Amino acid sequence: MQDQPSSSSLENSIALQKFGLGQPVLRKEDDTLVRGKGKYTDDFNLPGQAYAWIVRSTHAHGIIRAIDTSAAKTMPGVLGVWTGTDLVAAGYGPFTCGLPLKSRDGTPLLQTNRTALMTDKVRYVGDPVAFVVAETLAQARDAAEAVVVDIDPLPAVTDPEEAAKPGAPQLYDHIPNNVALDHHYGDAAKVEAAFASAAHVTKLDIINTRVAVVPMEPRAALASYDKGSERYTIQLPTQGVAGNRTNLAKNILKVPNEKVHLLTPNVGGSFGMKNVNYPEYVCILHAAKILGRPVKWTDERSTSFLSDSHGRAQKIHCELALDAEGKFLAVKVSGYGNLGAYITGVAPIPLSLNIGKNLASVYRTPLMTIDIKTVLTNTTLMGAYRGAGRPEANYYMERLIDRAADEMGINRLTLRKRNFIKPAQMPFAASSGVTYDSGDFQGVFNKALEISDHANFPKRKKESRKRGKLRGIAIGSYLEVTAPPGVELGKIVFEQDGSVRLITGTLDYGQGHATPFAQVLSTQLGVPFDSIKLEQGDSDVVHTGNGTGGSRSITASGMAIVEASTIVIEKGKRAAAHLMEAAETDIEFANGRFTIAGTDRSIDILELARRLKETRMPEGMPSSLDVDHTTEAVPSTFPNGCHVAEVEIDPETGIVQIVGYTGVNDFGTIVNPMLVAGQLHGGVAQGIGQALMECISYDSSGQPITGSFMDYAMPRAEDIPMMAVGDHPVPAKSNPLGTKGCGEAGCAGSLSTIVNAVVDALSDYGITHIDMPLTPERVWRAIRDAKSKAA
Q1: Which of 2, 181, 395, 640 has a 20 to 30 A CA-CA distance from 426?
Q2: pLDDT in tens, 141-177
Q3: Is 137 exposed, middle or buried (0-12, 13-18, 19+ CB in 10 A)?
Q4: Burial 495-512 (b: 16+ CB within 10 A, else e)
Q5: Residue 459, Cβ density class (10 Å: 0-12 exposed, 13-18 middle, ≥19 buried)
């Protein structure tokens, strides 16, 4: 072996400065995606593939009397028509919720056990009842229209509070009053005692609107079946192939994991919605097996509004108890969460459990109770949506604080400062039952005030008034309990060509994983940044992992990469010691090189990996540097921040314009500040959408009113302000990188600040509350009604 030149170590060190942790490295995939070279599920086709179309209920609630498929079967190009009876006969399992949740009386969550196609009743408009497969998509669509579904309509209910009342239409015989989970958390007696002793109690009724997810890429799937190996293959957009493959194989198809091959290419957004399996996937897998040819299905936007899971949807009553000085004594939340017609995935958690986990936020709130009934209604099923209970909980708390400050005559900023958890109190056992490991909430708050120029707001308000406009400002803190604990995969493979394959179980659906993950691996092992290739979308390779969700990616995969890298280095030291004829204890590793201590003899890690693949090593010695590692459960993190929103309102039209927005955040160690800022911008944009315009609506019969972009407003570029972003990082102590999740923080910070800023502007008319969405019509009516009362 020849000694390597010492300049190599210097070159590696310089490269790490460019591509290491904390550097704003451009995303690896940008060139491909911006040029339109990305490959999404609908871009793939297989020889001889057929096309599927789903027949859906036009009734929100009703009994299925008959489904006549005879005419459809005789139409041109039709290869088959199937109903729920066919799928039941095939023995597929139901879509269910595997969470071990219990109601206040100790009984488990009541399951709906949804089948892929309904056989007895339909429970919402869009409920799938049959599907057609034909040679072309047009033929499948035409034949689907010829399927005659005979349904006896039943009364429908879309409001969760109404659905829980005695006498309401019942969706299931085994679920009394449609309440699937009666969630309770906290010591009710202690909370009531705290409220009884309070100098002041603030109360608010809040409607948290139902929103559609509407990712850029609709759902799609391409299925095939190999008769020889009895193996299913399905390509579809997911948030993680390992977990979805296991659920599809074990719970639905009832086959061993190895009999299902799940592939996910590029994904055009998900926000929680694509992290579960859907009925359409079972339909085309069944057809592919029966027909012996691939079957493709692609959703359209109009049916996406019906079939994709929705988010939020709560009716909440909340109360905050304070002493005479404004210190928080207790908080309680009660109300209803709308599950929709079926329970799948993690649907009950955002509506119940996550409210309690996140409600206390950054404040010393000694006591809390959460009492939320999650209720079934004749609406599209509910699911996780960016934040999944975290933005909702922070929204309730910040609305309560602003209202309490006004009612008590205490400055809103002062009231928050009096209740912040102090850095010296870390680790802090919150009343939510979780323990915060780190944070400087006052420091984040102070920086947000400074960057937003909060002190000079009165001058800006005066200037707006001269132009006949109302101006309001709000500052709000948030804290999220992110990265739900779970194992994660860290797999590193050194290839002969000098490239390094990094395999992990999270999945990029817009976050830009390839770049920060490569930065972490490059920092740990000193391998060239450009040599690292990320793989996440093949279940034959990604055998383990909990997928992307709950802002867990950099924490979970980051921890897996660090731990796997440690194993690589340990193996490398043993191998380098053998090849360089030195003691293992004398081998040092730095900047991508193994060096004999005190000498200039060293070997580059990529050269060592290549040599091992070409050299027959003695028994007991590493034969490669490859590692296949799975972590233990990765602990949660607690990202937090303080956002400031400034709005201007035209009182003649009710139009709200966001004229200033500042977000200061503590995301712990920041691997790539450019990507973190992008995640924040996206989350804030979605928060703006919900706050100002988005709302799924139904009429009294359960028919959706908002079925397209003609009826459902989405924010455009002109609605999103320029954002000032600041960082005040306090590294987490729960993971080796010190990272905290950032993906959902924008939503958590924006809902409360935008609504509170609008209420602040409207306070000139004595308005103290207004529910989302703050549309021009709703704001205008609030102003008109306030003027009428004043007159």
Answers
A1: 395
A2: 999 999 999 999 999 999 999 999 999 999 999 999 9
A3: middle
A4: eeeeebbbbbbbbbbbbb
A5: exposed
